[in-house]
Design a protein that fits this description.
By secondary structure, this protein is an all-alpha fold. It contains 6 helices and no strands.
Length: about 130
């Protein structure tokens, strides 16, 4: 999977701020596919980190923004394979359909608004001088 992401990134000439939506998308796909935000974050970081190290290209912003984009992607969406989905469903008294229409949509909005915030912060407050 990591090699596929590297190939797509190379073909699409991903650099700088483009890594943020790519990392977000990988984390979001993993979260929706297997249901765990924690596993999505760790797996995405484990795939994207070595790719960036291999490319040895400067990001132009502090790496914490990349981690924040991964975190935003990992909360995006909640499906029936997510334990949090069932907790919200049962504790709120919602049906499965109501939970999908409310909780899942809210998480998508939270994830994308978080990504937008991260993109703006990385662009205007890059924090590149920090070590």
């Amino acid at each position: 999977m990591g090699d596929s992401i590297a190939a797509v990134a190379t073909r699409a000439r991903v650099n700088g701020l483009s890594w943020l939506p790519l990392a977000f998308a990988v984390a979001a796909v993993l979260k929706i596919a297997q249901g765990s935000s924690t596993v999505a974050m760790i797996t995405t970081a484990g795939m994207v980190g070595p790719i960036l190290a291999r490319l040895d290209a400067p990001l132009g912003y502090h790496p914490v923004y990349l981690l924040m984009a991964i975190g935003c992607g990992s909360i995006t969406g909640s499906w029936m394979n997510d334990s949090g989905f069932w907790i919200v469903c049962r504790m709120s008294g919602f049906t499965e359909g109501e939970t999908l229409k409310t909780f899942s949509v809210m998480l998508v909005l939270m994830g994308f608004s978080g990504l937008a915030t991260v993109l703006l912060a990385a662009r205007f407050v890059p924090l590149t001088g920090l070590t």
